[in-house]
Amino acid sequence: MKLNIVFMGTPDFAVPTLKSLYETENVTLVITQPNKPKGRGYELKPTAVKEYALCVNIPVIQPNTLKNDEPVNIIKEQNPDVIVVAAYGKILPESVLCIPKFGCINIHASLLPAYRGAAPINRVIMNGDKFGGITIMYMEKGLDTGDIILQKPINIPETMTAGEYHDIMSEIGANAITEVMTQIKNGTVKRTKQDDSKATYAAKIEKSESMIDFNKPAEQVANHIRGLSPFPGAFTCINGKRYKLFNATVTEGKGEPGCILSASCGCIEIACAEGSIKITEIQPECCKRMSVQAYLIGHKL
Hints:
By secondary structure, this protein is of the alpha/beta class.
């Protein structure tokens, strides 16, 4: 038996889950965010989820809101057993939450109740956590407060970036949702209430957070850079020019915070309040990301 699924998602993170559901269940409809302007020409581009859905001939709708009758009625027409949500980007109203037979299920990239909210992937890395994971949960009115169905923890290496963590969580989430669909069909789903007293929040990344503060210990600075890599990218200003920094490792150099201690042998060493960091990749403003070694061939810092 295959479940009738309405899938809701938008970015790259959601595509492996949609692919997994397409291959194992009956996905009758995909709902994703409207096309948005991208690139230098600001051309309207479809979401990653829409691109995949069209490739496999799944119908797609892109409502500006789910609070109108039209999208709600379209969802009802699908008679879904489950609505699966992965990084859709909008809160579901109660008129949608009550539609599917077995409920609305969300994939969240943290071990709830830790890191409820918009940016768990970035915050886990920025905070230097040693472990993280994915949660499959039932959705309700609250922000990531629903009952937990399944969790998959992983260890986080100290050099892992948010981009690398994103890709791992995306694949783990896709595998986990397949497991949950099997539980639904077998009637073996177990619900665990979240302990709200242990809840923490992963607020959306603000533009102001991208600027690196070297008046902090080197470990915190390195975590900050990794947590914003590759997007939106952490930056500093050197000789009046803005540079995004990538691939930060902690070292033991000493100097005035923000001072360049060395720029050779394929890396830049910058002093922090305690210790220093070494950077091996850099992105000058209005330029592509490149190795420090390549940049130093024709430039000085």
